[in-house]
Design a protein that fits this description.
Bound molecules: NADP nicotinamide-adenine-dinucleotide phosphate
Structural class: alpha/beta
Number of strands: 17
Strand content: 15-25%
Largest sheet: 9 strands, mixed
CATH architecture of the largest domain: 2-Layer Sandwich
Number of helices: 16
Radius of gyration: 24 Å
CATH topology of the largest domain: Dihydrodipicolinate Reductase, domain 2
Shape: globular
Helix content: 25-40%
């Protein structure tokens, strides 16, 4: 049995009240309530000794009704099975307040919070989790401030604001949202969630790169041929047409998840494990990310949407035929692009990014492909495939390293083999859901896994360079791909023209 090396112990959270804005919504039910319950089930070494959860939304609902709907949600979505005693203890902490959209709603919220804190002996440590539609975010921040609920940092107690993606729908609107938030809250109080960053495998990227000497020495233009990042979804737009159609894959996936993965895979070693040091290292990647130059988008970016096709043996409609999609919609459900990072480490190395809906299966991978073996010895005929490190973010979390080995026998025959780590079989301990990790980090005030204002700005700058090209070039192609495929031919050509090929999850 190999020993593990503890770097930092999970910290127990301080007493606080978590106010979930939009507590009747989908995210609250599927993720937030189950995550809070799971933290509770971890006991006092993790969950706060004393805390409360106050649901806040528009619709009137009795506290008992809220607790009941929370129980149903937790029973369905919780990682841990519901334990009746543990649930009783947890649900006694749940409260509900309506009136999010009412003129006196926030005044009532303040009164209710104070009541709960007094009754439970809680200090006014408050976390406001804005799980509301994006257009309601700034108004919530403003109304919190008006109601005297947005205490500035420096006080003995903390006030924290959690915001979900998307932040804005283009560079200008993102800057507007951010400056509105910072009118009422300090950057140190704001926690911008990208739930990808809470995933174990994403956190493991740093360990893989900086706790193993072999990789870091090879990490850069000298040894790496190219990097690929694929985030594939098998689902279609489903019931989210109203949200998805105005956004599309570039805004919905590239601006946040894919660029976060890009920053983590490409960043220089941070000077320490502090949140600021890590966020600075990631930001430097974004500063060096070359915007798509005017006129270059056709050569570097492919957009497409799914047509009718088959997935898992069933026929599914095309995007244009999905319920709620406007007839004139030109929204992309797929983007593939080639990007470059203009710094010493990555000069000239292409980063191919790809994401789409209705792909054959759900899967997120990063593949670092190393340079070809010199054309001597075993590779005189140019047949030896290069080494590749593939990091599987989800599902089947883990990574594999492809190397060449001799096939046993009298011939000299080579065969690529995989050194494969599967989290599930290597580690037996529990793997917390991303939202558990992120909620705990908000409680203890650790910003490491959250997105900084500067990162949001830089990522939108890059995405905006593409959006600008799309609006300038009215004839920019919107390709189609059959549902159940890995994207259109044009995406294959994008990479094939460079003599490379996509690696599918
Ligand atoms: N669902 C996900 O998996 C997911 C993933 C990533 C990010 N997000 C983000 O998380 C946020 C919440 O998403 P959701 O899926 O939970 O949305 P949702 O199911 O539509 O729930 C929205 C919640 O906000 C309230 N609400 C609706 N319109 C409002 C308005 N104009 N002003 C104030 N409150 C309003 C609703 O209250 P009533 O029900 O009382 O009317 C409801 O509780 C969104 O920003 C979304 O982009 C969601």
């Amino acid at each position: 049995m190999r020993e593990f090396i503890q770097i930092a112990k999970a910290q127990a959270a301080p007493p606080c009240t978590v106010v979930i804005f939009g507590a009747s919504g989908d995210l609250a039910k599927r993720k937030l309530i189950p995550a809070l319950y799971n933290l509770h089930a971890c006991g006092e070494n993790i969950a706060p000794r004393n805390y409360a959860v106050l649901g806040f939304a528009r619709r009137p609902m009795a506290v008992q009704e809220f607790r009941e709907s929370a129980r149903e949600a937790a029973a369905r979505f919780s990682r841990l099975e519901l334990d009746s005693e543990c649930w009783r203890d947890f649900s006694a902490r749940l409260d509900y307040q309506s009136g999010l959209d009412q003129p006196d709603g926030f005044r009532k919220l303040k009164a209710r919070l104070e009541e709960i804190e007094a009754a439970r002996g809680l200090p006014p440590n408050r976390i406001y989790y804005l799980s509301v539609p994006p257009e309601a975010i700034t108004e919530c921040a403003e109304r919190l401030a008006e109601a005297g609920l947005a205490a500035r940092p420096g006080a003995a107690n903390f006030t924290r604001l959690v915001v979900e993606k998307p932040i804005g729908s283009d560079l200008e609107s993102a800057l507007k949202v951010d400056s509105a938030l910072r009118e009422y809250f300090d950057e140190s109080q704001i926690f911008r969630i990208d739930h990808y960053l809470g995933k174990e495998t994403v956190q493991n990227l740093m360990v893989l790169r900086f706790a193993n000497s072999i990789f870091e020495r090879m990490w850069g233009a000298r040894n790496v041929d190219h990097v690929q990042i694929t985030v594939a979804e098998s689902e279609g737009v489903g019931t989210r047409a109203m949200y998805y159609d105005p956004a599309g894959a570039l805004r919905d996936m590239v601006q946040n998840h894919l660029l976060q993965l890009l920053a983590l895979i490409a960043m220089d070693p941070p000077v320490s494990l502090d949140a600021d040091a890590i966020r600075d290292a990631k930001l430097n990647v974004m500063r060096a990310l070359r915007p798509i130059a005017p006129g270059a988008a056709r050569a570097q970016v492919v957009r497409a949407r799914y047509a009718a096709g088959g997935i898992d043996g069933r026929n599914v409609p095309g995007y244009a035929q999905e319920v709620g999609i406007p007839a004139a919609s030109r929204t992309e459900t797929f983007v593939a692009l080639k990007a470059f990072i203009d710094n010493w480490r990555w000069s000239g190395v292409p980063f191919y990014l790809r994401t789409g809906k209705r792909m054959p299966e759900r899967g997120s991978i990063i593949c670092v492909q190393f340079k070809d073996v010199p054309r001597i010895l075993f590779n005189r005929e140019r047949k030896v495939p290069p080494n590749a490190l593939t990091i599987r973010i989800q599902p089947d979390e883990g990574f594999s390293f492809e190397v060449l080995a001799k096939q046993p026998g009298l011939d000299i025959a080579l065969r690529p083999v995989r050194m494969n780590l599967r989290y599930e079989s290597e580690f037996t301990g529990p793997s917390p859901d991303a939202y558990e990790r992120l909620l705990l980090d908000v409680m203890i005030g650790d910003h490491t896994l959250f997105v900084s204002a500067n990162f949001v700005e830089k990522s939108w700058e890059f995405v905006q360079s593409i959006l600008d090209e799309w609006s300038r070039d009215a004839a920019f192609p919107l390709h189609e791909y059959p549902a159940g495929s890995f994207g259109p031919e044009a995406a294959e050509r994008l990479i094939a023209e460079d003599g490379r090929a996509w690696l599918n999850p």
